[in-house]
Amino acid sequence: MNNLSIKQLETFRTVMRSGSVTLAAKTLCRTQPAISAMLVGLEKELGFALFERHKGRLVPNPEAYFLLEESDAILERLSRATQLMAEVKNLTRGKLRIACMPAAALFFMPHVIAEFVKDRPEVEVSMMMRSSTMVQDWIASQQYDIGYSELPKDRDSFHVEPIHLQGVCALHVDHPLAKKQTITPNDLDDFPLATLFTRHAASEHLRALFEEHNAAYRPRFELQNYISGFEFVEQQLCACICDPISAASYKLYKGDQGKVVFRPFSPVVTFDHAILTPAHKPMSELAKLFAENIQQSVNSFVSVFD
């Protein structure tokens, strides 16, 4: 039965449901001899008769009813598979596995995901929040479709799409510096700051920048992410020079109730992020489109500072 075909099963099912070769031929827009030949070929392939033939009429054998049940199941699964693959082709079905660093995982990435899937009810998403180093390792091991992290060093195991963001300064709304249009290192001379941990590249760069301007760099709170630092700013304990995604996340979360305002910082402090994709695992079209959406969404998400 290696040569049993879908057309044979479809023809057989139509004959069984219509009750005659004549009606089946009309339904399938084929000739009666073609339908009869298809049934004969099916019986030959099976090795037994499906019908008794009496005076030009077909009378189904018990085996025919058994085959009808199986044909219904096979053809329904085929129809469902065809529909599913059409949805995959149209990017309305599939699954995305995303790894994301904390600064973007709390608000930004959920925002991007929500916008992406709202018209795609059959798309499933798994998002895990981990440190940038872990995100990079997961993408390098080809475990996830897309990663969002701080800009990594080049590795052969993933592709990198850099995203460069200009930092802003977080201040309590009632602090005198909040009235300034732009904040400089000299404005924050010996002023307590909420920063990332000491050995983080952003903290080292900021320290060097303050030294260049002969301003005392004073990290009072060392943290894993800037969003945590905004609580200290709200309590008027410090200022914070942070990436605009963290700042926009605060504004999205707090709305008009927030006590923290954000001002441009000069000279420009750049925060380098990246979209990562596996180098040795083919990306689905759905994943490719989502990666493009991340790039486009960054600008719109941080546009609250324009």
TrEMBL record:
Pfam families: HTH_1, LysR_substrate
Gene Ontology terms, MF aspect: DNA-binding transcription factor activity; sequence-specific DNA binding
Keywords for the protein's UniProt record, in alphabetical order: DNA-binding, Transcription, Transcription regulation
Any GO BP: positive regulation of gene expression
Entries under SUPFAM superfamilies matching the protein: Periplasmic binding protein-like II, Winged helix' DNA-binding domain
InterPro entries linked: LysR_HTH_N, LysR_subst-bd, WH-like_DNA-bd_sf, WH_DNA-bd_sf
Family, as annotated: Belongs to the LysR transcriptional regulatory family.
Protein name per UniProt: LysR family transcriptional regulator
The organism of origin for this protein: Vibrio fortis
